[in-house]
């Protein structure tokens, strides 16, 4: 059965293949795009590589300097934050806005708090203010070093089963994510992502000014419940909280035009097509 999202992502990846770069002995995957404009670093969640943001990269690469990352097969949140800072410095992206979704959102918060002098903005998207929230939940409650990888993968796939039903609004998204689970994210990288969040340190106080802090959430996000969304906004006090009514945990995939529109706003780029309504907190 055809999957329009998989086909579109594959076409993008053929034109924008992922490169690799060693940082402190860890092998990062990366996509660099654009040579002028504001700098943007994109950090995926557990189920996604750098190209999970293909729709935003394709739309913005002519107006922004973009670095999208895939996580290495080892390391912690603290170590990854140091690596990201090193990459920002190495590629001349000082002042970059760092957007992270889910796991990436936690890492983005840690990175900007530790390296505020290098970072010019934070977009904490569909994410947590406290990693301790997940430690007792599957799969984080498992022994992530020794549990069979098939158990971890089956757990992710079980969570996607309802979406795979024919006619479901997120059926193509579920098919896309199933490919990530089935091996696009290798075993060492999958374990490293889960362990990084399970053992993540508490977030330091944010050092960026409030007018450079933004959040993104979805009303139908099945992984980030409403109280956690409220807690994130309470801690970060974002200048703008972007809020989707129906976009899932992956609004950059399911609502790409709107997601690109909010990034244009965050980066100070002229709007093209879809724009967000005015106000400190927006719903779309």
Automatic annotation (TrEMBL):
Protein name: Maspardin
Keyword Cell division: no
GO cellular component, one term: cytoplasm
Residue ranges annotated for the AB hydrolase-1 domain, each copy included: 40-260
Gene Ontology MF terms in the entry: hydrolase activity
Record's subcellular location: Cytoplasm
Cytoplasm is among the record's keywords: yes
Organism this protein belongs to: Marimonas arenosa
Main location: cytoplasm
UniProt keywords, alphabetically: Cytoplasm, Hydrolase
């Amino acid at each position: 059965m055809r999957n329009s999202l998989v086909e579109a992502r594959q076409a993008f990846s053929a034109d924008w293949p992922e490169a690799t770069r060693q940082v402190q002995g860890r092998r990062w995957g990366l996509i660099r795009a654009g040579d002028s404009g504001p700098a943007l670093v994109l950090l995926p969640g557990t189920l996604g590589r750098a190209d999970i943001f293909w729709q935003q990269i394709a739309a913005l690469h002519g107006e922004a300097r973009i670095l999208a990352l895939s996580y290495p097969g080892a390391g912690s949140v603290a170590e990854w934050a140091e690596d990201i800072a090193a990459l920002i410095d190495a590629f001349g992206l000082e002042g970059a806005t760092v957007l992270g979704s889910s796991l990436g959102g936690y890492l983005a918060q840690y990175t900007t708090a530790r390296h505020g002098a290098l970072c010019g903005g934070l977009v904490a998207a569909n994410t947590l203010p406290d990693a301790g929230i997940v430690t007792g939940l599957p799969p984080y409650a498992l022994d992530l070093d020794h549990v069979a990888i098939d158990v971890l993968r089956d757990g992710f796939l079980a969570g996607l089963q309802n979406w795979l039903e024919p006619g479901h609004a997120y059926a193509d998204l579920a098919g896309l994510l199933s490919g990530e689970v089935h091996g696009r994210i290798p075993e060492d990288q999958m374990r490293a992502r889960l362990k990084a969040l399970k053992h993540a340190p508490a977030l330091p106080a944010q050092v960026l000014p409030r007018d450079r802090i933004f959040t993104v959430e979805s009303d139908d996000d099945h992984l980030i419940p409403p109280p956690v969304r409220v807690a994130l906004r309470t801690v970060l006090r974002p200048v703008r909280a972007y809020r989707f009514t129906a976009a899932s945990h992956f609004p950059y995939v399911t609502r790409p035009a709107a997601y690109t529109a909010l990034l244009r706003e965050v980066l100070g780029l002229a709007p093209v097509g879809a724009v967000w309504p005015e106000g400190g907190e927006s719903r779309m």
